[in-house]
Specification:
This protein is α/β, with parallel strands linked by helices and 210 residues long. 44% of the residues lie in helices and 16% in strands. The protein is built from eight helices and seven strands, in the order ααβββαβαβαββααα. α3 (75-91) links the parallel β3 (64-70) and β4. The protein starts with a helix and ends with a helix.
Amino acid sequence: MTVRQQWAIVGAVLLLLGGGLVAAMHFLGDQLFPVTIGSNAPDFHAKVLGTNRYKGIRDYEGKVVLLNIWATWCPPCRREMPSIERLYEAYGSKGLHIVAVSIDDAATDAAIRAYADTVGATFEILHDPTHDIEREYQTTGYPETFVIDSDGTIRKKWIGADDWNSPGNRALVAQLLGLQPPSVVAESTDVGSPAHLRVAGDTAHRAGLQ
């Protein structure tokens, strides 16, 4: 066998391996690169209500973000929104950005805004009828929420409704903002350590899957 033939065989093997890798990334992308606690938050493309402008996670670079994916037809989404609003009232002025992205297909921007007003939501509402954000974040239910730190890392993932004004959630947000945690939590748990934040996020993720 000549040297040229040997290199041809090597090239063919590399092409096969490369093709296999591309196929694996296409069909097993969610398993190979799951969006979960510790992942970088994927970008998305959602419309600012009543405008022709769009925003994504890059617009909140360097900020602490609670990203909520919801729909007007989702009863659990409606149940949790008042607690999101209370969390926003407590920490919005201190640096927390709450971004609730509606994935409604048929509802207009005006209808989504009117719905948000009925539940008293004053935080930012965006609209993604293309469902791009669901694909990017690999969502499996509604609502689904991600707490993202200022480095763009997901620190908590929760599937289903939650009480976002609970002491535990307030402590997590306060820690990420560099603030003193609520005293009721500070007396019982060391929420200042990164290990605690990871445990809290892992517990939340498991609970959301039940």
